[in-house]
TrEMBL record:
Protein name: DUF3833 domain-containing protein
Keyword presence, Signal: yes
Superkingdom: Bacteria
Family matches, as Pfam families: DUF3833
Source species of the chain: Caenispirillum bisanense
Keyword terms, alphabetized: Signal
UniProt signal peptide: 1-21
Amino acid sequence: MRKSAAAAVVALALVSTGCTSMKIDDFQGTQPELTLEDYFEGRTTAWGLFEDRFGDVRRQFVVDIDGDWNPQTGVLVLTEDFRYSDGETDQRVWTIRKTGPDTYEGTAPDVVGTAQGTLAGNAFHWTYTMNLKVGDGTWRVGFDDWMFLQPGGVLLNRATVTKWGIEIGSVSIAFRKDDAANSAAVTAPRSAAE
């Protein structure tokens, strides 16, 4: 009995880790080009949902985001106000520092250590560990976060959530600038003929 239970756990872990061969360099030169501080400066709204590993939607939410970029310090502060479909509200404040032309690191009160991110073309890859509120407790989970800027200014976000290296679910989010006309980051790509 113990052997079959252990085998089932190992099999579940192998199936659920959701390994991907996708790398940030795969997106070099893709358009429209994403610049994190340009996109998130000012007001942004996002709509998202959390799916468990079986594909069942467990939670839906809307996020109002205020971004403040300081080019002198290279710091972007994002204040995220969450409104969940069950009536709960929450706030997360990210402090994101630009560490190179295409690299970033970030901290937030519920993030363990430092998040690491890299840009290439229209994509941003962001990984971090978070103490996530679940019911009356907290789970330490990992996020493997991918964002892709689309023509027209929509930023699509897909994150895999893991616990002990096993995928427990995913988060899907669509961001939209509240004033897309004023953001250079949301310009649709032009063809070579234009």
